[in-house]
């Protein structure tokens, strides 16, 4: 199992906690997925006087590690402040860092992301940056102290799967020792399996489960796919070829 | 069984409870320190949609089942229910949300462009496809609560006095002092006046992040709702939420850009973890709570089940819990 900042996690599946029909269904989805990490947003829920406390208690009661995020932050300052608040609320140095650069596509602001990651790393945070699959950006993030990278598969909530297989594969090849997590854009369990087959350490998703007709069943489906993909990654898959290769010997048969 | 009841809380839950019990001959007192219906009640800010089919897309099936009784009940209490159905649309790039919605709302009928023009002429030029839920209705929450309050007074329900008989607690989120698993889900809404747009029924705009519904009131007034944030605070509408609601309305029809902003409303809906209501006995008190975003839709069913329980000893088939010490 992957180790994030010296903590070994119990599952390669990480789930977000937004948009479920109810907290009960959210809890069912976690139970059936076996997910080891729950991401939770604090920006909008904090309110005037930590008004989100009831919901956060429900999240803590899931009994999994909590990875607070800075979802909804569009500037470095906002993200850093939200991270500091999250550290107090959840008593953890972990922070999933989102600095959104575009309101429409919700794609990360790579420049602000590096800046915020540097500040937070210096301040003792263990940063999980939500980034693009850009190699140079990822190098910068590692330089400023990130020991996990979370490139997107596709824009948040699109369910398009892995948009740039080439880019994700070269990241894996370039960072053999850094835990890599595909974060965002997954729509189907097969997308998650594909990420694991590429040798990624984990996947993080939310909408694909929360917005399914039966979120708990879909959560389990993702868990099975992640397990299948991870197993395949260790099993040295065959290479694809153009010519048919019969699986039973043809030697000795009449050639007509 | 006692025939005297004291209901604590005069929002949609309490008044509905009072109406149901008093119409079956019980002596009812409603205690609400804030007096007549007003902005202290979460239901004051409601949309007033009686939309079991639309809600069934993401809510438990029981909510859809129980919600089907609502329109007839409100009419039996003299309320005006508009039986105009619901229209559901999505912007061009969100058409997949419309497909999903149609699949999950079995009663949804797909309207081609010509039929949209027949139902909502102002939307026809902007949308080539819409869904229509013909069995849904809507009412004006404030007019309905105010009228019900007056009707109950005439019927002999008392709105002052001491606690007597069986207590039924309908305080909504305030009952968290006893109902520890009750939480608030914050909602923000707007009321605008926009004579340039005419809609005859609630319209829902599907959007992955900013879903919106617009409910027409009278005189060119519309209610725009509503955010849904996991927070228990009952005030503090944020600029972002208001902006999102406005953006969505503007996207639905640009003429909303010239609407006059009449009100920014905010409150927190009382909800249990499964977002379904409960009729719960704790000690000697019966609590009816957790109507979440389904106040006008589910209050009648909850009141009827509670009345069956206290008047006839009939245990409700759903949503009932007995937490009394044995």
Can you put this structure into words, describing what you see?
- The complex is a heterodimer of chains A (256) and B (326).
- By secondary structure, chain A is α/β, with parallel strands linked by helices.
- The radius of gyration of chain A is 20 Å and the shape is globular.
- In chain A, helix 1 runs parallel beside helix 9 and helix 7 packs parallel to helix 9.
- Chain A is built from nine helices and ten strands.
- Helix content of chain A is 39%, strand content 14%.
- A five-stranded parallel beta sheet of chain A has the order 5-4-3-10-9. In chain A, strands 6-7-8 form a three-stranded parallel beta sheet.
- Chain B has 326 residues and is of the alpha/beta class.
- Chain B is 30% helix and 25% strand.
- Chain B is built from ten helices and 16 strands.
- In chain B, strands 5-6-4-10-11-12-9-13 form an eight-stranded mixed beta sheet, sandwiched between helices. A six-stranded mixed beta sheet of chain B has the order 2-1-8-15-14-16, with helices on one face. Chain B has a two-stranded antiparallel ribbon with strand order 3-7.
- In chain B, helix 1 links the parallel strand 1 and strand 2.
- In chain B, helix 1 packs parallel to helix 8 and helix 4 crosses helix 10.
- Chain B is globular and about 60 Å long.
- In chain B, 51% of the residues are buried.
- At the A-B interface, helix 1 and helix 2 of A face strand 9 of B.
